[in-house]
Amino acid sequence: MIPEFAIREWSEHVPWTESEQVEQDLLICRALTEIYKDEYLASHLAFRGGTALHKLFLSPQPRYSEDIDLVQINAEPIKETYDHIRDTLAFLGEPKVKQKKHNNTLIFRLESESIPVVPIHLKVEINCKEHFSVLPMQRMPFSVVNKWYNGKCDVLTYQLDELVGTKLRALYQRRKGRDLYDLYKALTTSDINIDNVLACYQKYMEFVVDHIPTYKEFIINMEDKMQDDEFLGDTMQLLRPDEEFNPQEGYEVVRTLLLDRLQK
């Protein structure tokens, strides 16, 4: 789909380890731009998750992120949103749709232009449950400049503190070392309001569980993960070549700045 020269050009912007990662990154950037150029989608969906954090707030983007995570702003039927996404992302082909009660995913399947040919899966996930924000949402400019595609838009997203708060929830709920890395990177390179982060974490955790993890429970959770080789090695193929990350040092930062502030 994308000419090889355009992929090489994009690799100067995002020097990921594998050529197919560079190709998928460019596809994601075009998809994101097309979504927010659509007036309906731009007013009905908010951009969240690791890709939002890395594409909008951390520069140069330190970590490869492979999905587009969106949140339905209002509680309403999802069909019209699906129709608009299919139309705006028609260049990716017809998606496979996986529907759950509160989470709907469109998966676009392609093959890489790079040799050897490998499958590329671009996932657009829509949260259809969390129709709220703790802090006021904001619109941020986003653009793509490449010989294959040029475009720009204003992306509706959350404030950085809120994205970090949801990342803290993800750190507890998932076994992905990239969540630890994202928190460490945001805390050490950005102007973060810790009180805001913890307030957002509390609100989002309250929304999905009856019992908010205590400090002790969170620490036990993390001590288990910090012995897990898969968790510790999760970011090995995801970081820029010049980016280094020591999970133990990252955990020390996250624990000191965030976890030590949790309910004892």
Task: Please give a quick description of this structure.
The chain is of the alpha+beta class. It contains eleven helices and seven strands. A hairpin with a 4-residue loop joins strand 6 and strand 7 (150-157).
Percentage of residues in strands: 15-25%
Helix content: 40-55%
Q: What CATH first level of the largest domain would be assigned?
A: Alpha Beta
What order do the strands of the largest sheet run in, or round the barrel if closed?
1-2-5-4-3
Q: Helix count?
A: 11
Q: The CATH topology of the largest domain is what?
A: Nuclear Transport Factor 2, Chain: A
* CATH H-level homologous superfamily name of the largest domain: JHP933, nucleotidyltransferase-like core domain
Largest sheet geometry: 5 strands, mixed
Please count the beta strands (DSSP E, at least 2 residues each).
7
Protein name: Nucleotidyl transferase AbiEii/AbiGii toxin family protein
Keywords: Transferase
Pfam families: AbiEii
GO molecular function: transferase activity
Notes on the structure:
The protein is an alpha+beta fold. The protein folds into two domains: 154 residues, JHP933, nucleotidyltransferase-like core domain (Nuclear Transport Factor 2, Chain: A); 103 residues, no CATH class. The chain contains eleven helices and seven strands. The protein has a five-stranded mixed β-sheet. The longest helix is centred in the first third of the chain and has 19 residues. Pfam families: AbiEii. GO terms for molecular function: transferase activity. Keywords: Transferase. InterPro entries: AbiEii. It comes from Phocaeicola intestinalis.
